[in-house]
Amino acid sequence: MDSLLIIVYIISSVSFIIGLKMLAHPETARQGNWVAAGGMGLAILGTIFLYQNEQGAFLHNKVWIFAGLLVGGAIGTVSAKKVQMTAMPEMVSLFNGMGGACAALISIAEFNHFASTDFTFQIHEAYQNADSIDEATLVLPVRMGIMVTVLIGLIIGSVSFAGSIIAWGKLNGKIPDKVFKGQHIVNLVILGLIVVLGATLLYNIYAQFVVSSGDIGTLSAVNLFNKIRIRLPLSVFVLFYIILLLALAYGVMFVLPIGGADMPVVISLLNSFTGVAAACGGFLYENNAMMTGGILVGAAGTLLTIMMCKAMNRSLKNVLIGAFGGSTVAAASGAEEQGSFKEISLADAAVVLGYANKVMIVPGYGLAVAQAQHACHELEKLLVERGVDVKYAIHPVAGRMPGHMNVLLAESDVAYEKLEEMEVANEAFPTTDVVLILGANDVVNPAAKTDPASPIYGMPILDVELAKTVIVNKRSMKPGYAGIENDLFFRPKTSMLFGDAKKVLQDLIAEIKNI
Amino acid sequence: MVNCPWSQHTNMQYTINWLAANQQTIYIVILMIFVGIEVIGRVPSVLHTPLMSGANAIHGVVVVGAIIVMGQADPDNIFALLLGFVAVVLGTLNVVGGFMVTDRMLEMFKGKRQKK
Predict the structure, then answer these.
(1) What is the mean pLDDT of residues B49-78?
(2) Are residues B52 and A21, on separate chains, in Cβ contact within 8 Å?
(3) Where are its TM segments located (chain A) (predicted)?
(4) Does A80 or B11 have the greater pLDDT score?
(5) CATH number belonging to domain A336-514
(6) Residues A470-480: pLDDT tens digits?
(7) N or C: which end of chain B has fewer CB within 10 A?
């Protein structure tokens, strides 16, 4: 390999590490993103112009490569620029799926390349000048390690691709949660099949390279080559593509039963999967930039997944296997607890808010859907002018992704200090006059504390009930994203303010200006 | 990695030889796992989403593999060319889209800070 390319890859690897580190701190995050992007650009250009294979040949088909970069870059840029703030999590999932698919395609290409090699010819080439071959030194181009890597890259890449597409569909509401009895067993069977077929495939390849020792002995080279006939049988190809299909099926089945509210965790997990798949490509080409980048994301992504689970006070196993699948259970338990709720008029809500000392706003996904963040900031400013102490209580998993609310509110220039994390907010609720819940549901559901049968039992919530009054803005009484009834809406302290968050907030602002 | 299956080596020796031949790779894997975990150690939950998105863009380095596939494909082999081309497009989508989305997320944090 060109020594300049080695240096390029070292710089790229270091920039990935530094970029990721900077991304983890609020002040440096944005630069960190560009540091990593710079390293990526360097790695891509370096590969195109400096990469040489074992025979010292440079890459050809450069027109195709640049065409691919151009097409991908254009689509990526346009879709990333156009996407709505609310749809960003979906977008991340989609891009992740593309990476997974890319890894899987690399494996398919490498498999075909390997399988179409004339191995007999390779051996012949290597020993063409030898009169006789010593059995102990004879080297056959088995390359088992490469085949294992290709298979792992194929399986993980495909699972990541299929899973990400399902996660994308779920987040934008195109794909409903689907659970059937024994789904976990079906998943385990698919996984088992993949392992068994993978082992069979490897054995079938290996078997082609086994030459009984009697065939070799002290035979002359010419005679030896007549004995060795290495051709990969059709079964190897069939098995390979069956494994591809099974891996895709597994990706679908793996994500399908998991509830939409848990999608961030799933996307994060698939993200780290794709990292591992990319690292497989790194092993394949002995490419250190791919290896470091892939493993880095694999490790960091796994840790991030666990941290997200912790923020919801649930284990990864619980998210993946327990799932939010118990929608029927939740509906049943919700039905019996249902009581009556009371509505509050806009004028009353305006008075309650306008004359409060301390108001806490709890934003949720509904706020993002209604694009009401600016109206929300308007209301906050208006209340502050009236001398009301206004803060935002941010649940770590409010919205569709951790940090979703922070990003959304930051977009409308809400000051960073106004955002309180869950622990701080929970301490502040007892001294709060009014809690205004805007399109949040599961993160304030008391069932997480009181009802062990609830799918969200154990998740830390915002204790809005400690405040004197709770006003809930929702579009209707329909249960939240996780499909769970919320007891909070039926509590005596709670009043409901129905309507689209943006419209309601604008009307509230007008009303408060009038009092 | 290239070894003859019928040599006198036992499986144990084979494993040890494999480890020795790939020790550099093994070191990279182990160290990178620790670096990955260490680097995002105490990240505030605010940054979970942008960080995930940034990491998502970094594993787009898989596009390097796609470029190598493409660049080594036989120009007469339409299947290989097409496969490589699609792989390059998808990989680039992952990279460009990933970094762009991350930047858009983080832009909002920055805009607010400048005004203060």
Answers:
(1) 92
(2) no
(3) 6-24, 33-51, 63-80, 92-109, 144-168, 188-210, 230-253, 265-285, 291-309
(4) A80
(5) 3.40.50.1220
(6) 998 888 776 66
(7) C
